[in-house]
Amino acid sequence: MNKVDLAETGKILASELDELSRDYHVKSDQHEILIWEADILRAKAQDLIENCGLSENLQASTLISKWGDSLAKKIPVIANKVNSFHKEYASIKNT
C-alpha cells in the first residue's frame, strides 16, 4: 500500500473510532482509548502525506497497548484494522 492510500485508510479508521467512542461515557477509559487512538491515526496519516513527524504522545497505539487490551478484545475487528495500520505505517516509514 502506498502512503496516500494508507493515509486515507488511517483517516477512515479514525472516523470509525470517533463514532465508536460515542457508545461509551465520556469519562470512561474506553472513550479515552478510542479518541486517543483516533488522534494517533490522524497524526500518522498526516505524517504520511506531509512528512511532518509525530510528537512523542502520538507515536504509540493506545488500543494496541496494555491499557487498551481489554477493549481491543471486545472489538477485535477494529483492533485488527488498527494493528494493521500501525504495522503498515512502520513499514513505510522505515524504508
Structure explained in plain terms:
By secondary structure, the chain is mainly alpha-helical. The protein has one domain. Helix content is 68%, strand content 0%. The protein is built from four helices and no strands. α1 packs antiparallel against α2. The model has no long low-confidence stretch (mean pLDDT 96). This is DUF3135 domain-containing protein. It comes from Shewanella vesiculosa.
Fold topology:
Elements: H1 3-21, H2 29-50, H3 69-74, H4 76-93
Biggest sheet features: none
Q: How would the global form be characterised?
A: globular
Q: Which regions have little confidence, pLDDT < 50, spanning 5+ residues?
A: none
SSE series: HHHH
Total of DSSP H or I helical runs spanning 4+ residues:
4
Radius of gyration: 13 Å
The overall pLDDT average reads 96
Query: Into how many domains do the coordinates divide?
Result: 1
Strand content: under 5%
Organism: Shewanella vesiculosa
Protein name: DUF3135 domain-containing protein
Search tags:
95 residues; mainly alpha; DUF3135 domain-containing protein
Question: Care to give the gist of this entry?
Answer:
The chain is mainly alpha-helical and 95 residues long.
